[in-house]
Each structure stands twice: as structure tokens, then as C-alpha cells.
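Recall from the previous lesson that a structure prediction takes nothing but the amino acid sequence as input. Here we apply that procedure to Signal peptidase I from Extensimonas vulgaris. The sequence below is the only information supplied.
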Amino acid sequence: MPFMQTLTALVLAAFAGYMGAWYFGALEGDFELLLFLATVVTAAYWLAERFYFLPRRRRAAQAVAAAAAQRRTELDRLGIEKVDLDVEEAQQKLLRQPWWLDWTAGLFPVIAAVFLLRSFLFEPFKIPSGSMIPTLLVGDLILVNKFTYGVRLPVIHTRLTQGAPLQRGDVVVFRYPPKPSVDYIKRVVGVPGDEVAYLNKRLTINGKPVKTVPLPDFFDADAMRYFPQFEEYLGARPHRMLNNPEVPAFVQGASQFAYRDNCRYSIEGVVCKVPAGHYFMMGDNRDNSLDSRYWGFVPEANIVGKAVLIWMNFSNPKRVGTFD
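The prediction returns the following C-alpha cells.
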């Protein structure tokens, strides 16, 4: 099958080229789309193998066995008993899957399982920055529940099931509104209809100050210094956050974004009315977080899932477990 070998080599080269260009920054990759295409392509090869190529090889092996039996009968008639003929070895060679099917149809079950698991159940993420310290540290590998807020179709992200509504205090992964190909992780501070005020380093929701309790200072091993730490009672369970009173409350560099008229900026900070179908997100490291204060609200359609578990941190395996 010279044609199929050439076609498969071109397909694999295209995938390798795409990943190489992505790795070296020549283009902006989309892993979800890449995995979807890999599933479709390998599924096509798997179906072709099962219903065309494998039956064809089996017929060829059966033909060899039938020809060998006919030859044995003819040799027996001539009185020839010893013949150097290994029919079983010839059949095994005919039945063996060629490389171009082994690298496509052979990988389909694994790729399909990863695609389904990642699209509808759980997706792994790595924490790249310190915006969620002290809850999540740089290097934490987390699992994100993809069905809590409703199951969505991969790639096009159409919601199939309603799911539970987002709650204040949830730690959520979402597609960054200014650049949806990039995933962000923050904490839900405001839900649709809320008025969120962050003035003079104090968070207020609908006119009620969010309760905070001072904790011992947090030592940031990367920065090699201590930061003021607090326990914040935003959702059903308290969580820790950093809030450095030495850093100005003024939001510097806020961009233009959808529904920016819902926000009022001042020297003390910002007050925003969360529009319908949107959420206001903030990092737990309040003075080191690029969040809704700067780029606006997160549309419901951008929600990826709820962060639920740290499954590994190779620098600190003790961090494995759930978090608030």
C-alpha cells in the first residue's frame, strides 16, 4: 500500500510540524483542537482497519493456507513426504499490522479515552504563576472537574447539560476573555447581579464587607520573604489570601473591556456591577494577580471547570490533596 504509507507519513508529519511550531512559538497552538483532530483521524484509520484492511489480510492468509493444503495434497499424490514449507510463518507475516496502521488505528483507543476523559470528566492543569498563592503554588498540578458546571461539547464549547451554578468562593479555570486560547485560574468573587467593591484593599459584596481574619505571615519561598496573610470568608468555606497593605489600592492599567461602564475606578480601587451571564474573578494573591479588576468580566461561555484537587507537585509532594 504505497499510497497509504505516503498519506500516513504526510498526516503524521503535519501533526509533528504543528506541535513543533507550537513548541517553538511559531504559532499559537490549541491542544483541545489537536486532540480532537487526532481522535477523528485515528478513528478513521481504526474503522478502515477493522472493516477493510484486516479482513483483506485475513483473506490473503486464508488463501495461502488453502494453496498450501492443495500443494500438500498434490505432493502426497506424488509420494513426496518432506517439504520445507512454513505456512504459519507466512500467515503471521500477512496478518501483521503495517507500521502506518500501528501508528494510527493502533493508537485510537488510547487517544479516544484521553479525549473523552479530558473533554467531559477531568482535565489536568499546571499552575504557571503566583496569582493564587497561598491556595495554589507555582508548579502545582491540579485536576479540573469538567461537569460540575455543565457538560460542554469540546472545541465549540456548546453546553449540553445545565450543571450547578458557580458560587462565590469557587476556584475556577476559564478561557481568558482577551485571549480565549489561554486558560486562567482565579476565584469567583462576584456572580451575576452582584456589586463588587475593592476599595482600600477591602472586598465588599453588595454593600457587605467580606469577613477577614489575620493569620501568621506567609513565607513565599520563591520571593524569599514574608507576606501578610488572611483568612477570608467569601463562600461556604473560608480560604486564605494575601493582602499587602504597603501596595497601593489603585488599579493601574485597566484595559477597555465589555461592560466597562459597569465599573467605577478611583484612587481607592474599583466598584463593578456584574452583568448577567458574567462573573467577577480575583486571585488570592491580591497584589500580584491580573484579574477582573484589570480586564473585566468572564462570560459564562468561557468557563472550563472547577479546580478540585492538587494531584502532584514534584517540588513538594506533600501538597497533594484537596484545597479550599
